[in-house]
Amino acid sequence: MIVPLFDMVCFTPTFFLAIYWRTKKQLHRRLMFIATCVLTAAAGGRFPEAVLPGYMLYARVDMLILLGVARDLIIGRRIHRYISTHFPSWSSHNPSPSNQMA
User: Fold this and answer.
1) How many domains does the chain have?
2) Mean pLDDT score of the chain
3) What pTM does this model have?
4) Host domain of residue 71
C-alpha cells in the first residue's frame, strides 16, 4: 500500500508545478517528463516478478530520468539546473525493496 501512495506523492507536485510553470518551457518540459516517469512505476508494478523483479521497480524509473539527463548532455552540453539539484534527493527517497511487498 505504501508504494502507490509514494507514486501519488511524487506525481502530484511535479505535475502541478509543471502546469504552474508552463510558460517556462525548459522547466515545464522536465517536470512533465519526470511526472510521466513516475507514472511508469505503477505500470511496472503489474509485471510478473519473473519479468521485472520488485527491487528493479524504482531503479527503472530512475533509469528513465537518467535518459532525460543524457538527452540534456547530448543536446545542450549541460544538465538542467532543476534536474541537477532535485533528482538526487528524489531518487534517494524511493521506497526500499523490503517495504514493497509488505
Assistant:
1) 1
2) 76
3) 0.69
4) 2-97
